[in-house]
Amino acid sequence: MKTPTVQKIAQGLVGPEEAGRLMEMLALHPDFLVDHGDTVPRAVVAQALNMLLFRGLLREVPEGARYVREQGGRMVFDHGALRTVNAPGLGALPPGHAAFARVLEPLGYHVGGTYPLERLRMMGYAYTHRDYPDDIAQFFVSEIFPDRFSPEVQAAAAEVFQVKDDPLAADAKGLLDRLAAGGTLELAEATGLVGELVRLFDRHHPVPTLARYEALLAESAELAWIATEGNRFNHATDRVANVEALAEELKARGYEMKPKVEVSRNGTVRQTALRAVMVERPFIDARGATVSRVVPGSFYEFISRDLIDTEAGRRLDLRFDSGNAQGIFKMTAAASVC
Length: 338
What we know:
Blueprint: H1 5-14, H2 16-25, E1 40-41, H3 42-60, H4 62-71, E2 77-85, H5 98-104, E3 109-117, E4 122-129, E5 138-144, H6 151-160, H7 170-182, E6 184-185, H8 187-198, H9 210-219, H10 221-229, E7 233-239, H11 243-252, E8 262-263, E9 269-273, E10 278-284, E11 290-296, E12 299-305, E13 307-310, E14 313-316, H12 322-329
Parallel strand pairs: 2-5, 7-12
Antiparallel strand pairs: 1-6, 2-7, 3-4, 4-5, 8-9, 9-12, 10-11, 13-14
Helix pairs in contact: 1-2, 1-3, 1-8, 3-4, 3-8, 6-9, 7-8, 9-10
EC number: 1.13.11.93
Family: Belongs to the 2-oxoadipate dioxygenase/decarboxylase family.
Pfam family, one: HGLS
């Protein structure tokens, strides 16, 4: 039996054993279980990237890894979420979601919806895959606006989020341009590109000073979170049949869960999550020395989506909900009550 192309890409980056685990862990569309030879479609590149990002999230969130291990079966990776800062003059990284639009669009994604997150002074962008909207995980890319906060926070943000060099290398930009134009890459090129793109989902600004971090935290848990975590996945989400029943089951099994299931205004999308992991991160103190503090990290989320009537017939409701998103975002507040 031939090795699927997505598995070949993963093998080239994390080795055959880890790649095999990912193939067993995640539910994949049949089109991703075949060998495409040396002509790799954009959807396969996108799927391979998502698999490796899911792996990275589990390495950051032990309770998420525990759930996947204990639950067995195949997880349906619904979406991954990341946070960005939209402000001028922050250096080499494009502001806000534009930093990732330049990556996601060549992979076949488009903005399927926008979601004002007014309480958090943010905007969310749902990137949905054009070729396999139901089967390739979406990206929920949010951006926060420092200019909607106090002058103290604006000054802190201008210092903390400076990025000297663009983390997207010139060769990766060239491959993305080719993928956008032609829709395919050679296998070696696809493997190299996925490896480059995985590294984008990280912190690219310098270690923050403790004083600036505390200034951000005083007004925005989300800005403070980006200060320590950068563009890492804030959460990855498992699509399940009945999120309410699963939440009760997991609580009974000793998992620390969000107390409340978030329900969209139309009732078709329901979400909950495991508590965010607490992580140790470096800071620079007033003397210029490096110190460590424990801060909120990432988490593992669950979502149930109903079928709805559309012009194309009965389809999965792939939309998000601003209220749900703002409720879920509380999971990474330093002292959340959610």
